[in-house]
Amino acid sequence: MKSQLEQASEILNWQGGIGSWRLNGDSDIIFPTDETILRLRENKLIEIREHIANPIPLTIEDEYNLDKLCSIFETNKQVMIRAEYGGCGKSFACEAMKERGHRVLFVCPTNKLAKNMARMASQSTSSLASDSRRRIESNASTILNTM
Q1: CA 43 distance to own-chain centroid
Q2: Residues 91-108: pLDDT tens digits?
Q3: pTM greater than the 0.70 cutoff
């Protein structure tokens, strides 16, 4: 019977090239020796309830009706929008909710999409700030003109 080290050595490529496994040294690694760190602890199991999904049947016409989609989102409060492929309009539907004044959480599976969402959020935040600034300046000038 082979040891775990022997089994791992057969599977892993320990040569010196790119993509190979290597150990550059262990002089800077502080291995735990304290018994309180190394002792086994019992896991505390938590109850995980099964989530029940309620699919919302949509017709093809409904898929392009942003008012209907947003109404469904507002009625159900917490909604997960899923689609098999990219470009199906998930982010587009969420942007429509932001335009209605809702706070929207984007969970992005890729860095590229996360960066895109962050860029869009900063642009909308700066445009909101400039809109607010214009309203304040307008209100201030109205107040000054009435005095």
Answers
A1: 28
A2: 888 888 888 888 888 777
A3: no
